């Protein structure tokens, strides 16, 4: 079980300015934000058999699966963390993080830190092991755009990526957990946007929608369930959700590797090199889950198993476009670092990938890069995102 240094991105409990505790435990797919007063009760983690930094303040982070509840034991199969004073169920997936102090992680009062989240169900994540892949396009793909050139080798550290797009059910937990009122979840730019807009939920949040043209003509509407991907989120909202869920948006490179790399070849589409309309929710598939041919709607996440990427990710093509973490750089591939590229240092637009429900083959290619959306743009009913987190 790995432990890594973590100096800055701590989480604040609530938006009321109260002090939280040092230890942060995030249970995946999270439902309940406990009050800081609860989190301060007898929460102790023994990490004697874990690696940690010997230099104070020794922040650590580790994760694993709960194997017993009394006491609560968290294990990755080899190492173990013991937690007391926290309710959990066998099989829950936990992240434990905090400051190491003399072999014991204890909850203390500390400003600007602490959140304890609980989750009834976790987002299913796919692990992408460290290694290199071929990113971009060598010009051989149909409808090549210049911003996909040149194809270049990129090494990525191991990471996790959501098997599916973030669903409305998952996003609902962020809303219910106070995410829109908690500035600790947001970047400063994102929080300023949140305050200026006064938003408390994404656009198109209502279950009943009609995205046919002409819009709202009473024909072609559909009902979004909790299994449908969340749409109408601006970059800042996607970023805030990921922060709340203990992760981040994937980098453009992380997104692309998980979408297309077989281990020796970069597929044009997640499933292979040949377009298959029935393998993703686009405008020309007939899958009833997406409403059938030419339907203007999303499909429940994971409704196109034939379109799985080599790593098992679903809907990397189609359904909703997905925000990536990077600023968009038109010629970035010519100067991209070879290891864990993070995108340009600044920019005007954020990257969005993968095509959506009203698209077709051209923009559903894994190498296609859309870079014209400012971070405050909601991309209407076409855009969602996927959660990533480091491999630790
Ligand atoms: Ca469709
Ligand atoms: Ca997608």
What does this structure look like?
There is one protein chain. The chain is built from 6 helices and 22 strands. With 392 residues, it is of the alpha+beta class. It has 2 domains: 3-118, Beta Barrel (OB fold (Dihydrolipoamide Acetyltransferase, E2P)), CATH 2.40.50.140; 125-390, paralog of FGE (formylglycine-generating enzyme). Strands 3-11-2-8-5-6-7-4-9 form a 9-stranded mixed beta sheet, with no helix packed on it. A 4-stranded mixed beta sheet has the order 20-19-18-21. A 3-stranded antiparallel beta sheet has the order 12-15-22, covered by helices on one side. Helix 3 packs across helix 4. It is globular. It starts with 19 loop residues before the first strand and ends with a strand. Mean pLDDT is 77; it is low at 1-43, 46-59 and 106-122. The protein binds calcium ion (2 copies). One calcium ion is lined by residues 281-283, 285, 290, 295, 357. Residues 165, 315-316, 318-320, 322, 354 line the site of one calcium ion.
